[in-house]
Design goal:
Number of domains of chain A: 1
Largest sheet of chain B: 5 strands, antiparallel
Number of strands of chain A: 0
Strand order of the largest sheet of chain B: 4-3-2-1-5
Oligomer: heterodimer
Order of helices and strands of chain A: HHHHH
Shape of chain A: globular
Number of helices of chain A: 5
Radius of gyration of chain A: 17 Å
Helix content of chain B: under 10%
CATH topology of chain B: SH3 type barrels
Structural class of chain B: mainly beta
Radius of gyration of chain B: 15 Å
Number of domains of chain B: 1
């Protein structure tokens, strides 16, 4: 009955050594963080909603997406859920940005 | 200062043995699975905050719920550490029930 993300005290993590290395942020990580800041400032997303979105992923998504990939996927889902953007608008924008990036 | 709330530092409380995750509705729960049904002691009252279980679904999360720091003996929960180790968790009041000081047996 434990939820997928409720990992406290669960093996193998409970016995694993704590990773104390600093991990450098990628440009992607920084972009996603900035996007979340803007969506929060405009009151389009609360952090509680971001977390709930991540908790509703499939187990495969939850296990394979990186920290900031989880954020981005949840933010995208929430924008669609709230009617701020449609999937079609998002897909069209991605296609347009890809085309711009590949043109000389 | 004294904060509004059902519990005070030193009160013994039991965490509700409840699994909203098992129901048909989508939920967002902040109470760790390993503390459900366990008994601890109130350490601090942080004041009242909008309930994240509602905020997570775009609701206002009102009435605000008092949030407490609660200390538990680690030994019965996790099979690690020293016998004197404790676990401290932040838990909202609606997840806590009073435990009477009366000893049975």
């Amino acid at each position: 009955m434990r939820a997928m993300h409720d990992l406290g005290g669960i093996e193998p993590m409970a016995s694993a050594a704590i990773d104390r290395e600093e991990h450098a942020l990628t440009q992607f990580d920084k972009n996603v963080d900035a996007l979340m800041y803007l969506l929060s400032a405009r009151r389009l997303i609360r952090v509680d909603e971001l977390r709930r979105g991540i908790e509703s992923f499939t187990p495969l998504q939850y296990a394979t997406l990186s920290y900031y990939e989880k954020w981005l996927q949840s933010m995208t889902n929430l924008m669609v859920e709230k009617g701020v953007l449609t999937r079609e608008e998002i897909e069209a924008k991605i296609a347009s940005l890809r085309a711009d990036a590949s043109s000389p | 200062m004294t904060r509004a709330g059902r519990f005070s530092p030193g009160d013994r409380v039991r965490v509700r043995l409840d699994w909203p995750e098992a129901g048909p509705q989508r939920v967002h729960i902040r109470t760790p699975h390993y503390l459900r049904g366990q008994t601890g002691v109130i350490e601090r009252n942080f004041g009242a905050y909008p309930n994240p279980e509602g905020l997570a679904f775009g609701q206002p999360g009102l009435p605000a719920q008092p949030l407490y720091q609660v200390r538990f003996d680690q030994a019965p929960l996790w099979s690690q550490g020293a016998p004197s180790d404790t676990i401290v968790a932040d838990l909202y009041e609606h997840w806590l029930e009073p435990v009477s000081e009366a000893r049975h047996g």
